[in-house]
Amino acid sequence: MALKVGDKLPNFKAKDTNGNLFDSQDYIGKQPLVIYFYPKDETKVCTEQACSFRDNYEEFKEFGAEIIGISADSVQSHLKFKSKFNLPFILLSDNDKKIRKLFQVENDFLIIPGRQTFVANKEGEIVLVFNSMSGKIHIEKALKIVQKMTK
């Protein structure tokens, strides 16, 4: 059964671009999270999506939210992607696809890893689940929800 609005954010751990272990529990109770799953580093739509999150990052931070991008790419691939496009947010490597399975993010068109965004409030309750192969619209939807949470 897919995660939905009102569900608790699953607990997960993964390596970030610095090789450090990221633990979702370090953020729950402290700040809202925007967690987006994307198919692959440096592909056209994924790069547009990441750069749109980058271009709006300060606005997300103003509302206290942290952005976390997750794909099956390696830590090395994420490091190169992050550096090349000056991405200020966290990228996590899910090379064994355990986090994707935990969040129940299905493949699109049977073979392409899904592009899905989850927004959780400070308490870790999911307030948005959005699935679309269009990258930029994820940022608009997530930012609108984050803004509403802080009003």
Describe the structure in your own words.
The protein is α/β, with parallel strands linked by helices. It has a single domain, classed as Glutaredoxin. The chain has five helices and seven strands. It has helices spanning 44-55, 57-62, 75-84, 98-102, 136-149; strands spanning 13-16, 21-23, 33-37, 66-71, 90-93, 116-120, 126-131. The longest helix has 14 residues, at 136-149. It is an enzyme of class 1 (oxidoreductase). Its EC number is 1.11.1.24. The active site is at 46 (cysteine sulfenic acid (-soh) intermediate).
In short:
The protein has 151 residues and is an alpha/beta fold. Helix content is 31%, strand content 22%. Keywords: Antioxidant, Disulfide bond, Oxidoreductase, Peroxidase, Redox-active center, Thylakoid, Transit peptide.
The assigned structural class equals alpha/beta
Helix-strand topology string:
EEEHHEHEHEEH
Strand content: 15-25%
Residues in helix, %: 25-40%
Residue ranges: pLDDT <50 for 5 or more in a row? Answer: none
Shape verdict: globular
CATH homologous superfamily identity: Glutaredoxin
Main beta-sheet annotation: 7 strands, mixed
Cα radius of gyration in angstroms: 14 Å
Distance between the termini: 32 Å
Strand order of the largest sheet: 2-1-5-4-3-6-7
CATH architecture: 3-Layer(aba) Sandwich
- Output the CATH class name: Alpha Beta
Domain count: the total is 1
Average pLDDT works out at 90
Count of DSSP H/I helices: 5
Domain Thioredoxin: 3-151
Catalytic activity: a hydroperoxide + [thioredoxin]-dithiol = an alcohol + [thioredoxin]-disulfide + H2O
GO biological process, one term: cell redox homeostasis
Subunit structure: Monomer.
